[in-house]
Structures are given as C-alpha cells and as structure tokens.
Amino acid sequence: MRLTRRGMLVGAGVGGALLIAFPLIPRRYPVPLEAGKDEHVVDAFLKVGRVKGGAAGKADCILTVAVPFCEMGQGITTLVAQIVADEAGADWRKVAVEAAPISPAYADPVLSAKWAPLWMPAFASLGADAEGMLARLHAERGPLMITADGTALAAFEAPLREAGAALRAMMAQAAADKWGVGWEECETKDSFVTHGPKRLSFAELLDTAVDYDPPAVPVLRAEPPREKPGQFPEGAPPRHPRLDLPAKVDGSFTFAGDVRLPDMVFAAIAHGPQGASVLSSYDKQAAASVRGLVGVVHARRWLAAVATDWHSADKAVRAMEPRFKADGPIADSEKVLVALDKALTKGEPQRLLAEGDPDALLAKPSLTARYDVEPAFHAPLETASATARLRHGLLELWIATQAPERARRAAARAAGLSRRDVIVYPMHAGGSFDARLDVRIAAEVAAICKVIGKPVQLTWSRWQEALAGIPRTPVSAQLDGALSPDKTRVLGWRARLAVPATAFESGARLLDGWGVTDALDLQDQADPMACEGAMPLYRIPEKAVEQVPLALRQPTARFRGQAHGYTAFFTESFVDELAHAAGKEPLSFRVGMLEGEPRLVACLQGAGRLAQWGGGIEASGQGIACHQMELALGGGRVTKGLIAVVATARSEAGVVRVERLSAYVDIGRIVNIDIARQQIEGGLMFGLAHAVGGASGYAKGRPLAGRLSQLGLPLLADCPKVDIAFADSNEDPFDPGELGMVAVAPAIANALFSATGVRFRRLPLISEGL
Amino acid sequence: MSISLTVNGRKRIVETDADKPLLWVLREDLDMPGTKFGCGAGLCGACTVHLDGDAVRSCQTPIADAAGKAITTIEGVGLNDIGKRVQEAWVALDVPQCDYCQAGQIMSATALLKQNPKPTPEDIDGWMSGNICRCATYMRIRAAIRTAAGLPAEESVA
C-alpha cells in the first residue's frame, strides 16, 4: 500500500471528523510520562525504549502504552495498546502497557459531556457537547479520569491513533533520510520500516528516530482499526491476544490485595447497617486476646482491626462486636416497597420526554402493566481491597478504582494531606460492574495507615462487600398503551417510572465527595439519567416518559447497564404484551413499528435467524427483546449500540431454566472482535444473572441475601447455549460492555410467557414464584 | 505451632495457629497470592487448591489438616502435565476476563481431568458448579476443559 500524507489526511476525514477535530484543540498540559533508562517519551500515551534480549541477543524496540482506564476484565488495556500498535505498525509482541498517572492529559470530555447534568444541573445542555469548551474545561479541571459509561473509545481512539502515528512518522523519517526517499512513501509493519525492498527495524532506527519531530498535524492511516466479523469467526485465533492473558492463567497477575510491602500489616473492617449508621460502641478488650493484633482504628462510620495477618484482623474485628446506631435513614425493603408503591400510584409524575401527548388516548388504555425491579448487587468476586503506605508525608495507594483521581482526593482528605502528596498506583479490578466507582475504601485505608504508622492492606470481607456496597436502585413502573381500534398499531404509549434521582445521588458521592447520608437528600427530584432508555424507538405517534421522583431513603449506585438495565425490561416486556393483546407475532409486531430504524430491524431479524425463531407462539418457550443505547460524541454526532436477544426458557418448580440465548449485536466498527465477543458473552450472562438473581432486599440495613450463594448467580451448569453474531458495520464504535446485559431479562420474561402463559413482571423473575 | 507442608513440591515450614485457613497461610505466610479470597465460606471456589491431588477450598481448610500433605496451587499447577494442558487451553481460548476466579477455575478443571480424563458435558457442568465467575466466562471454560481433554471444543450435536 502506498501511503501519502495527503491520502491519509483525506482518509482520516472520511473515517470521522473526530479524528481531525481533536488535534485542533491546543494541548496546554505537560506530558505526564517520564522516560526511564533508554526510553523516549513520544507523547502522553506512548513511550519507546530499547530492551536487550531480542532474537540472537539483539536489542528490541519496545512500545510502552499508557492506559488511563481501570481494567476490570473488559479488555481495555489490550484495546488501547492495540490501537497505538496498529497505527504505529508495531509488532504486537513488542508492546507493553503501564497505568497512566493522574493528569489532565487523560481527561475525558465525552464523559464530562455525558455527565453534564451531574456537574452543571441548571444548564446541563451547555456542557453536553463533548467538543465544546465547557465539557473539556470541566474534564481537565478535575481532571475527570473515570472509567464509566463506555466512553473510552469515543474519547481516546483519536489521541491513541495520533500517538501511534507520531511514532510511525518518526521512524519513517529516520529511515527515509538514510535511504534518501520521501518519508511519506515508507510503510511500517511488524516494527519495521520498509520502502520497496529496503527494510530497517524500529530497534535499528530508534536512536536517530527520537531526534525527529512528528508532523504538527498527525498523519493517520487511511482506515481506522477494524476487525470484520466475517474475517474472525468464533474460535478463530485472535489477531491481538489479550496482553494480560499469560499472567492470568498462572497466578502471577497482581491484584490490590496481592501487593506485598516490607513490614506490611493487614486490616479488616466492620461497617454499620446500610444507610446512615454511626459506630456507637465496641469491646476493644475482646480484640486484645487475638494473636498478632497490631491495633484498632475507629472512625465515625466504621471500626477496623489491624493484625500481622488478615485472618487475625478479621477475627479481632468480629470479636469486638461493634454496635452501630442510626443517624438517619436505614435501608429497609418494606419501607422502600411502600414508598415505591405510593409514588407510582399517588405521586406527582413529571414528564421528561414526549413526542405528542398520549394522555387523551390513555384515558382508557388498551393495556396497563406494572413492573417492579429489586435493588441489584454488583457482587464482584474480588472484595474491595487497597494497600497504603505513608512515608515522609507522601501517601502511596495501591487500589483498583474506576476513579483514581477521586480515590486520591478521598485518601488525601482522610490522611490530612494535599492531593499532590498522594500517589495512586492503579491496579486491575477483580470484577466491578461499577462497584469500584465507590472510593470510600481509599479514605479508610489512608486513615488506618496514618494511625498505625505502617504499610496497611485493607480487605473487605464478603459480608462487608454485601453490607456496605451500594446497590443499583429498585424501581417500579407503570406502562400504559393504546392500540388502534383494529389493533394493528400502537397509537399511544406512556412509561411512568417511580425512581429516585439515582444519577444525581451517586454523582454527588463520586464527583463532589458527598457522604452516603448527605447524598440521600438529592433523591427526591427529576433525573432524566435515571430514566434513560425508557422512550421506545417504536414509531408510536403519541408517547411519553414520566418520572415520579421519590426519597427512597436507601442509598443507590451505578451498575452495569445503568438505567437501561430496567428501562429495556419495561419497554420490551410491555411491547410484547401489546403484541399479544393485538394477536400479533412479537417479532413482526416490533419490526412493523421500526420504520427508519434499519439497524435495530437487522438486529431483530439477525437474532431471529440465529435462534430459528418460531414466532414466539404458545408453549415454544421463545421470547425476543431488543434495545438501543447511545453515546453523544460531540458536535452533534451520536454513536449507537444495538442488540436483539432471543431467549429459550422454561420454568420448572419455580426455577427458571434458560436453554439458549441468541444475540445479534451492532456495535459499529469493531476494533478487537475477540474482546467484543467476550464482552457480549459476559454481558449476556450478566443479564441472565440480573434476570434470575443478583438482587437483595434489606431488613434493618442488613442485606437479606448477603452471602454469595444467596444471590442465585448463574453457575457453569446454568450457562445456556449461546450464539452471537455481529453486524458488519463501519459506523462509529460503541462500547459492548453494558449493551450485552440490557435485553436479556425481557427476552427471558417473554420466553417464560410463551412457555407458561404467565407474565413475569418483577425482576428478578423468579421472586414472583411459580 | 510449627507446621510442615509440601507446596508445589517444596518443603515449607510455617509458624501459625492450627485453625488458620490454608488460604491465608498461602497468601500471607508463604507469599503466594495467586490463590484468591472470594467469600471465605467455601461458596465461590476462588480459593481452590489441590491437597494430595484433590480439589479443596483452601479458605475452609485449617492449616493443621494440610500438615504433611502435598499442596498444589495455581503457581505450581503448570508443572503437572494436565495442569499445563489446562493452562494452555485457557490461553488458546482466551478465557479470562477480570481473572479473579480463574486460579480456582483452573485448579478445579485440572482436578476434574485428573480423575476423569474424558468428561461428558454433564460431568463438566456438575464438577465446576462450585466455581463462580461473575464475568461469566463459563462458555469458554467449558470449551477450554474439553480442549484440554482432547475433545472437540463444542459438543457435537447428535
């Protein structure tokens, strides 16, 4: 392939305006990476260095890519490195990664824009453009470095490509000058620069290449990275195997709880009941008899014991039998159910979105259904853990967190230090599903470390993870629909959600450092983010989404799938009920209302083909559901992720058995198809877990299903046959991390209706009992 | 008390309480953190190790019960042919996501293939039902066990 500078610039324009828009924004911040020995910093995302020990003792040129995200299993580390390596033309075996430090260079304007209502509630629309100055300023001021809402590619694919392009240009210039040719005519591949038959390795060129400046306007490859589904069928060896793969099969991969420091001690902790509770008393003497006890640390809302090993620390903290008392609302499901019911039946709804006005049509609705969703628990397999060391006024923190900068603030405040005196070493998380947006453990370990005066590793027990972790909100909804007199079309639709302002509440904790109790005060207000995805895409002339805000008086948090995890359940259950009421086949009923939505229609038809859809007829046990998620890229551009799922299920003696899930997924252009497939596979199973379990109520602040085995999470034997197909699309990429889970619960609920004739309108589905 | 163990073929002596779970002796006394703490109640399988070849939950195994026995952990399972095949299948099929449960999954899978070299799908499902994976890598775990056993990754449809 002959590459010319002009050709590549045009290509970049074709590939997406974002790619050329970004460089126009001045980079006002110093590059935060430091070069090690024999290393050269290319830019904020990339270093190159010489490492001895290549083939025949020759030096290798190693690319080290800085990853500004929390790896939680979603493969982002590999994706980031791959984008740089492909653009540079580097050998994948010579690419390394390191965690990026906290810096405005990694600020995420796409997330800032998406979360504008959280930091600028009064004039959110002004901050909602990712390419606008306000979103960028907000992101950089924090800096906003948070792994959430699937913004990674949208915000960072362009600068990552630029980093790779800069290195390619430097290498090509060094080679071209040696050969006396134009550098734009050189190609790079497998860490070699080539020009016709001439060939020089990156390692050979490195010394001279670092003296060349890359062009001021990055020269990108004509095509952005893409793996077409047809080229990589299921089971094909990945072109870019995950970088973390080898260490993840031999026990050498290090989590926050695996950090070992000289003289380190171990801490266990007890929190009070979920909600507003404060420590009232404990028996300090009872801990004294535990061998290895180092000390006891208490705070307003927790008690910790520190020992020479975690087992003893855990024994000590339990022996002290800490007692807590309420200083505000305590989580209680009975009260929550009453509050949700009252809000839905008697509360004042606020209209958030409308096309037309369905109220007149719905004075006498053709169909009304009520749906209820329980609080969902993240239940990552790794419990929260963090390690801290305080030396000479500098606090070091080893922690898996989706919000390293917020963790740094929390730790600094707890230790009485300036933020500049806290160093965060980001660790990979053993699952999160948004649990690791909670940075309280950073404050806890910092406080314990300061009192004890030794390096401390704090690990929450499984019970503490269940007790103190904050679940996704419960929600109740009433859906009303009006069919045309001939029952061929839906004329009116209204979704009314009784839900607290969970996005504002969790946003205040995360972005503003509010405590759990204070943030509860924000629940009783309208919150469009808490109702995202509730407006059906279906062509219905009069449709509206309403929220009845309420003070739930029980803390709520973000969770994989966000509001879509319940709004898709409402929409796709109810449209299925309407189809049945109209006597229509559920797939064609949906397609009939999706004029102008070819991508979603393709998903429905694709899922139908995979599952050999039999029409969802009575007793078939097949059910279908679809959903679309969106992310604003800035400048009015929006990227979309779409999915349709067919479930085959049956219910036996109150146990839901899902035999097969077939998903057709459109996430636009796919950068790494094996990782995308992993995310959809995992997302489908996460959706299955959400459909059949993963939830708990509370009694007096104690979770009723606090043990892992009580959450009804799927085991290997529960794993159905799964078929996944991806749309071959060149639209802007959409993150597959959350999309996989959203349509599973309604597909299963609809399948159970087909199997049993009973509608399952509560999540998890089995709590309705058969 | 002083307890002598054989871990991955190496003799080790630890000074500890007899009731301390093997999990914490491995992770802290012996500085082998590959074996993971998930629930502390024997419910999730993240802490699975082999005791004289049998899969056990190390969080539920008092160290005194492991005294004098041969312990194999994720750090040493690759020294054994079956363990090595399992690890290779895990890599070939790109199984792990977050990885936290995978040490336990690999230890359970290796123990299965040791006593049942050609497991049926039902054997695999039944044997692995004590290992939770919240990322839900189950499909690939199933296929990887079959691959390690020399069976086709997908069960053929009869």
Greatest chain-chain interface?
Answer: A-B, 62 and 60 residues
* Gap from first CA to last CA of chain A: 63 Å
Tell me the strand percentage band of chain A: 15-25%
Helix share bin of chain A: 25-40%
Keywords (chain A): Membrane, Oxidoreductase, Transmembrane, Transmembrane helix
GO molecular function, one term (chain A): isoquinoline 1-oxidoreductase activity
EC number (chain A): 1.3.99.16
Transmembrane segments (chain A): 7-25
Could you walk me through the main structural features you see in this protein, from its secondary elements to its overall organization?
The complex is a heterodimer of chains A (770) and B (158). By secondary structure, chain A is of the alpha+beta class. In chain A, 32% of the residues lie in helices and 24% in strands. Chain A is built from 23 helices and 28 strands. Chain A has a 7-stranded mixed β-sheet with strand order 10-11-8-18-15-16-17. Chain A has a 6-stranded mixed β-sheet with strand order 13-21-20-19-14-28. A 4-stranded mixed β-sheet of chain A has the order 1-2-3-4. In chain A, a hairpin with a 2-residue loop joins strand 5 (187-189) and strand 6 (192-195). In chain A, helix 3 packs parallel to helix 8 (152-179), helix 18 packs parallel to helix 23 (744-756) and helix 21 (673-692) crosses helix 23 (744-756). The termini of chain A are far apart. In chain A, 61% of the residues are buried. Residues 1-27 of chain A have low confidence and may be disordered. Chain B folds into 2 domains: 2-72, Roll (Ubiquitin-like (UB roll)); 78-148, Orthogonal Bundle (DNA polymerase, domain 1). In chain B, a hairpin with a 2-residue loop joins strand 1 (2-7) and strand 2. At the A-B interface, helix 11 and helix 21 of A face helix 1, helix 3, helix 4, helix 5 and helix 6 of B. Chain A: GO terms for molecular function: isoquinoline 1-oxidoreductase activity.
